[in-house]
Design a protein that fits this description.
Layout (H helix, E strand, L loop, with lengths): L17 H7 L2 H7 L4 H5 L16 H11 L6 E5 L5 H9 L4 E6 L2 H5 L9 E3 L14 E5 L7 H15 L3 E6 L4 H10 L9 H11 L4 E5 L3
This protein binds S-adenosylmethionine.
Length: 219
Amino acid sequence: MSAEVNLLARLPVSKRNIEKRKEAKDPEVVRIAREFGETFFDGPRDYGYGGYGYDGRWRPVAEDIVAHFGLKPGERVLDVGCAKGFLVADLMAVCPGLEVFGLDISDYAVRHCHPDVIGRLHVGSADDLPFPDASFDCVLSINTLHNLPRPRLITALREIDRLSGARSFVQVDSYHDARQKEIFESWVLTAEFHDYPSGWLALFAEAGYRGDHAWTVIG
Ligand SMILES: C[S@@+](CC[C@H](N)C(=O)[O-])C[C@H]1O[C@@H](n2cnc3c(N)ncnc32)[C@H](O)[C@@H]1O
């Protein structure tokens, strides 16, 4: 069974102006955000990140991931939904010799990746990972899988399990009560699926997902 583990405990919480996003959000903004192009990463905040640059914030998270999984030089790690590869770069920095790769749907993010990960990132979708069975020692997917509709999300979890078995970690959007759900729905741009933890756990079980998990909860 999937176990909950907070590997992002040392990631600084980003500032969110929920009221402003609520006002700005319309179907056209959501459509553009879901393209995961330049506007999502480096355009105005209403469309996504509002500027996605490297600032080292993933470094402590990388340390905690290496410690949690006991990762060693020579082992292979895949970050699904790696964006510009900041976590990929930091994992290699904190564990020299670790072979880290990434995959993302965004051609823009891969073309604008961190210089240390050039050639290590692939453009592709989480539900169709172009790698052999059992080819990674660990697969991570942080704040990404909820961008797929439920049936494709199940396929994506099966893909992660196929590559690395139970040595994996996914973090996805969730909420614990009606107030948090309302805040989340005011903020969310790109997620196709979200649920209470019980709904996610049912989905993990349906997929046969054996790795670890955590929730991103706003508010
Ligand atoms: C909110 S960002 C998270 C990026 C990074 N993992 C982080 O936590 O900062 C979501 C990422 O998922 C990527 N993405 C969206 N749909 C995807 C899919 N079907 N397969 C792979 N990546 C996807 C987006 O391009 C984007 O880089």
